[in-house]
Amino acid sequence: MKVSLLFLLACTAVLALGARADTSEEPKALVQKVQELAQKVSAMTKDAFSRVRESEAAQQARQWLSDNAELAKQRLAWLKEQLAELLKKTQAS
User: Fold this and answer.
1) Among the four 18, 46, 56, 82, which has the fewest Cβ within 10 Å?
2) Does the predicted model carry a pTM greater than 0.70?
3) Do residues 45 and 9 lie in contact, with contact meaning Cβ atoms separated by under 8 Å?
């Protein structure tokens, strides 16, 4: 998802610069602007993702997942057993 978001933002930057660019401006200058903007977007995106990663809600969600992982494994094992029994019964019929 990170790569696709960066790609989308870079494409948007290219389109925005292309729309604003004067026809007399050299392509190298336009490419330079796009590269600078892409670097800024990349830095902003990394910063946003790190803030989300460090947020209290994200930490609580990770803690909840780690606390409930064992319960999920147990329920999955139970479900597998039930499905295996059901399969045996349907094959026997």
Assistant:
1) 56
2) no
3) yes
